[in-house]
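thought: fold this chain, then report.
action: predict
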Amino acid sequence: MQYNTQREQLVMPEYGRAVQMMVDMAVRLESKSERQRCANTIVKIMSGIQPSQASKEDQEHRLWNHLARISHYQLDIDYPVRIVPQEDVQAHPEPLPYPMKAIKRRHYGYLVQQALDYAKTIDDGERRRFVTESIANQMKQDLFVWNRDSMDDELVAQDIARLSEGMLQLDLDDFSFDPVGESILLHGEGGKKRKKRK
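observation:
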């Protein structure tokens, strides 16, 4: 008795060993017309094994490409669709470049730094104050996520001045942090403490 683990590994196991054996037999046929007829039959069998919800054209394109792949691209027939070359199928995608950006305070992230750089360009004093206060609220939430013990209003004001090179100042006497953001972090999306059942 021969176990599957002792046999040749299947190219596409989802179609099973019977399809693999039929394709191997079709490759060995001498007549091209016989190979073509055999390939048409195999594709019909494959469509029954792997039915698709896609359109008929997409399904046909997929099955014929699978047939070429199962045959190790050695089945010499007239394919009714464009066959993706073996090199393209086996090619690995190019590695994505990782954006290595210099972040002055990593727990705030790069977007906070960008926001502060944008705030420095605002000429309108009232708008600049509003944007700076919005950034301050975000920074306090970032501190909460990073380390609850470091959630300090004075620290946020100092970091804004430091990160903006002194161009932005947060007046803590005239500004109170938005309790909504903090409430969401502490008590969930409802923003309120849940009442205890009596």
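thought: worth noting. Residues 180-198 have pLDDT under 50 and may be disordered.
final: tokens above.
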